[in-house]
Structures are given as structure tokens and as C-alpha cells.
User: Which sequence fits this backbone?
């Protein structure tokens, strides 16, 4: 199943079946317009709660609400045709109990039409992942640097630099896998840890600051194209500089408006046609 020529929307079981096969391509999307451009090239569109920082200008993802995720998740489903759309469960909407997580996930799935949800956390979330997957909710896990826990982790730094941290990340990933997740994001950890988890676990691993050995990779699209430049993590590769292009376009437009070069005759209505001889 490669992205080109797909006739149906990718499902979570299809992503799960890619273990050890062709790498799974994942990008974030928050709007219908972006989803439309990305959809033909990716397997999964992740409506990440990173939208809190990238779109809304918060300094972490902690302020993101289910209502925001639903609005953006539904837009991405409308804008895409064949990618699996995965929507993040935001902070505070699932950690309290498996029942709370199910209520949030069911609402998000029903109101967006997405095919799976993602939640952050390791062994402490295993019971919840099991509860959800037993009740028809495909779950993507997320371990390592988990942005919703920024206040307890003490910042957005790579994890696994001590033996204890490395063991905890491996245990967390295993717990999420055994609980029934179809895949797990491995974010910002020392490369050998992500490599080892990928080799050891039967589920698809999606790296972001993980390892080239992961079963797939994800990036935040605004990072990919240079539309978010508050900071640039080491794991980001820029494929375009749209932020700079946007700024240049705005400057050129401003100059044209001030010099009355815009609008031209072709942009207004009712201008007399030029006489031809
Ligand atoms: O919120 C997000 O965009 C994510 C990815 C960075 C994995 O969780």
C-alpha cells in the first residue's frame, strides 16, 4: 500500500500491518487546505495538539481543548481523502480514568470522522489503552518526550540520557504495545533506544527525533516547510522556507499597494477593453 493510487482511506490495521515493511509516512495537519496538499503523499495525517503552539501561539500544548481538536480534526477529515486521520486527545481529557478517555475518544471520533486517536504516556496509561482498544477505539501511543508533561519533565529536552530514563522509555513503549495500541510515537530520545524498541516490539514505531530504524517518521508540517520558527528542534529537517516566502510576498504586496501598482486593470471589473487596430 503506497500513498499513490490508493482507492480508500487507510485504516489503523493497515498501518499496523506495515511493521518492518515500507516506512509509514506521517505529517501533522490542522486545516482542510493543508490536508488536501499533504494527503496524496502520506499514510497518516496527525491532527496533533501541537496546533496549540503552532496555530494558536501557546507556549505548550497544555491549553488545548477537545473542542479545538474536534474543529481541526473535522477540517482535516474533510480536506483529505485517503490518509488515516489520527487526532490527539488533549491534556486533561483522558488521564483521569479509562472511562473519561473513552468518552473523549468516542466524542472526537464521532464528531470528526477520524480513524484513530493518539494519547501520551507509558505504563500509567496502559489500562486506558486496553480499555479503549477493547471498545473499538484504535490507539496510537506516544512515549519519550511527551509535550503534555512538559511541566513535570522540566522542558522539551531529549530523553533517555540516564540508564533509568532509558529503561523507563523501553518499559513504557512495551506497556503501550501490550495494551493493544496499533502504533507508538517515539519522540526525542537517544537513537539506540528508539532502534531497540523498534526491534523488540511487534507494533509500528513512528519516530520524531527517534531513529531511522523506526517503522515510520512524523514531522510537524509547519516545521517541515518553515512556517514555525519560534524554535527548531534538532530532529526537524526543513524542506521549504515558506515563512520567508510569505514574508517576501507580503512585502511585495505592500509595496504594490502603496505605489498603486495593485490592483491592475486585470484585477478590477468594468475597465474598458483596449481598442485593437
Ligand atoms: O502534537 C503533535 O504534533 C505530535 C507530534 C509531534 C508527534 O504529537
Assistant:
Amino acid at each position: 500500500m503506497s500513498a499513490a493510487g490508493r482507492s480508500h482511506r487507510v485504516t489503523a490495521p493497515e498501518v499496523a500491518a506495515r511493521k518492518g515493511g515500507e516506512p509509514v509516512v506521517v505529517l501533522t495537519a490542522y486545516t482542510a487546505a493543508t490536508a488536501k496538499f499533504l494527503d496524496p503523499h502520506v499514510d497518516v495525517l496527525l491532527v496533533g495538539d501541537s496546533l496549540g503552539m503552532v496555530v494558536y501561539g501557546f507556549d505548550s500544548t497544555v491549553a488545548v481543548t477537545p473542542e479545538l481538536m474536534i474543529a481541526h480534526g473535522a477540517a482535516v477529515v474533510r480536506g483529505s481523502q485517503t490518509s488515516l486521520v489520527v487526532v490527539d486527545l488533549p491534556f486533561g481529557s483522558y488521564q483521569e480514568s479509562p472511562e473519561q478517555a473513552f468518552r473523549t475518544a468516542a466524542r472526537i471520533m464521532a464528531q470528526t470522522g477520524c480513524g484513530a486517536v493518539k494519547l501520551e504516556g507509558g505504563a500509567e496509561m496502559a489500562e486506558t489503552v486496553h480499555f479503549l482498544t477493547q471498545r473499538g477505539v484504535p490507539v496510537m501511543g506516544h512515549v519519550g518526550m511527551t509535550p503534555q508533561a512538559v511541566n513535570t519533565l522540566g522542558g522539551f529536552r531529549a530523553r533517555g540520557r540516564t540508564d533509568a530514563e532509558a529503561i523507563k522509555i523501553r518499559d513504557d513503549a512495551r506497556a503501550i504495545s501490550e495494551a493493544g495500541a496499533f502504533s507508538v510515537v517515539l519522540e526525542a530520545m537517544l537513537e539506540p533506544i528508539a532502534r531497540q524498541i523498534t526491534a523488540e516490539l511487534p507494533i509500528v514505531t513512528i519516530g520524531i527525533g527517534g531513529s531511522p530504524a523506526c517503522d515510520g517518521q512524523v514531522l510537524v508540517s509547519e516545521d517541515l516547510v518553515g512556517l514555525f520558527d519560534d524554535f527548531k528542534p534538532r530532529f526537524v529537517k526543513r524542506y521549504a522556507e515558506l515563512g520567508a516566502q510569505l514574508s517576501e510576498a507580503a512585502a511585495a504586496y505592500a509595496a504594490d499597494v502603496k505605489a498603486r501598482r495593485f490592483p491592475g486593470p486585470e484585477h478590477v471589473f468594468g475597465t474598458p477593453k483596449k481598442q485593437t487596430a
Summary: The chain is about 40% helix and 15% strand. The first strand starts at residue 24 and ends at 28. The beta strands are 24-28, 44-47, 84-88, 116-118, 139-144, 183-187, 204-208, 216-219.
